[in-house]
Design brief:
alpha/beta; 12 helices; binds adenosine-5'-triphosphate; binds magnesium ion
């Protein structure tokens, strides 16, 4: 995660005054709430920007996503592609005052989180939507015992005595797979290993039994064995609690193991979205294909150099309106390809792609596009 935005602790989310008290929400056109069988979370055309020395720069640019109930949606993309800013927009935890949602809707339980008064948002944040971040040490308060931190998260939303909250904290530590939880209750974060600390962070996020858990790179700071354990834990807890999960990662291997649906994000936009199996077997966008090529194969030819995508995700000031991956795709493109945003079309049921002439059509006309293909209102 980038900059100061990302180093907010779960305690911060639940106990600190709201960091975006007056974050202006640019007037949204009125839109009807979706029907009750809608996904747990539906993001429509979300745009989020930062006021900078160089003016207002858009980090999330017309993103639309559905998160079906009880499923795990993986959001994958390289560093700087806008994954965390998307997550922070959902929670309305953008840095104040320069981060703001400038367009779109975030539907949760029939309400638009992008436009909800803060008093109502606080009833949802931490209680109905929980969040786990990448780096457990920065997510915990180093000077408070872990039991106290979990109990505080519980007491913020539920009327329990301190003793009851402590008992609940103990249960949560046990559910998070912490051995000897009774002893750990009184430990300080620095007395725990990285994996243990992340389990504590998960326990805090689960304290109020959220329906939706957003995990932003929950394991990248941990070594590989611990990573697998934490991901298994999340899977188990999700099944036990019938939670819906958004799992943000730059690792398609993690997605393959854990996600039902995948959204591939590049330079502030979703370039492809599909059920995981479809995405892995029939990737359409050059960026998705490149990410897949960059996964190390277990049975590869020894000493084959690992493929990496040349160049970098453009910075916010360099973003063009048109196809943003074209310059890195290794395919021929013209300036005209960078001028107009390609339409986001449904190529087969549930499989959407930003239908770039360069990145999908290989310099031709893109795919589908003609009769029957649906176009989503992005951009
Ligand atoms: N507080 C901020 N002020 C200005 N720009 C920001 C701020 N936070 C993020 N950005 C910019 O927004 C873009 C998206 O950043 P974001 O943190 O969402 O990327 P990410 O996909 O989460 O990357 P990573 O994998 O490194 O966590 C980047 O260009 C980043 O520099
Ligand atoms: Mg991030």
């Amino acid at each position: 995660m980038r900059g100061a935005v990302c180093h907010k602790s779960p305690e911060f989310f639940t106990t600190m005054p709201d960091p975006t008290p007056a974050a202006p929400i640019v007037a949204q056109p009125a839109a009807a709430a979706p029907p009750s069988d809608a996904p747990v979370l539906r993001i429509e055309n979300l745009s989020t920007a930062f006021e900078t020395e160089n003016g207002l720069l858009t980090a999330v640019d017309g993103v639309s996503l559905d998160v079906p109930r009880g499923k795990t949606l993986g959001i994958v993309g390289e560093s700087g592609s806008g994954k965390s800013v998307t997550a922070l927009s959902i929670m309305r935890l953008l840095p104040h005052p320069h981060g703001k949602i400038i367009g779109g809707h975030i539907w949760f339980d029939g309400r638009d989180l992008a436009a909800l008064p803060l008093s109502e948002l606080r009833q949802i944040r931490g209680r109905r939507i929980g969040m786990v971040f990448q780096e457990p040490m920065t997510a915990l308060n180093p000077s408070h015992r872990v039991g106290k931190q979990i109990a505080e998260a519980i007491l913020l939303h539920e009327r329990l005595s301190k003793a009851e909250a402590r008992q609940r904290a103990l249960e949560l530590l046990a559910q998070a797979g912490i051995p000897a939880p009774q002893e750990r209750l009184d430990a300080y974060p620095h007395q725990l290993s990285g994996g243990m600390r992340q389990r504590v962070v998960i326990a805090i996020a689960l304290a109020c039994n959220p329906e939706l858990l957003i995990c932003d790179e929950p394991t990248t700071a941990l070594d590989v064995t611990i990573q697998a354990q934490i991901l298994d834990l999340l899977k188990k807890l999700k099944a036990q609690r019938n939670m819906t999960v958004i799992l943000i990662t730059h690792d398609l291997g993690v997605i393959a193991e854990n996600a039902d649906d995948v959204a591939v994000m590049y330079a502030g936009r979703i370039v492809e979205r599909a059920p995981a199996e479809t995405l892995f077997t029939r990737p359409l966008h050059a960026y998705t294909q490149a990410l897949l090529q960059a996964i190390p194969a277990l049975e590869g030819v020894p000493k084959t150099p690992l493929f990496s995508i040349k160049g970098q995700v453009p910075s916010l000031g360099e973003l063009k309106p048109g196809c943003r991956f074209a310059p890195r795709s290794g395919r021929p493109y013209t300036e005209a390809d960078l001028l107009e945003r390609p339409p986001f079309v449904e190529i087969e049921p549930g499989h959407w792609v930003e239908n770039s002439r360069v990145c999908v059509g290989g310099g031709g006309e893109g795919v589908g596009g003609g009769e029957g293909a649906q176009v989503e209102g992005q951009g």
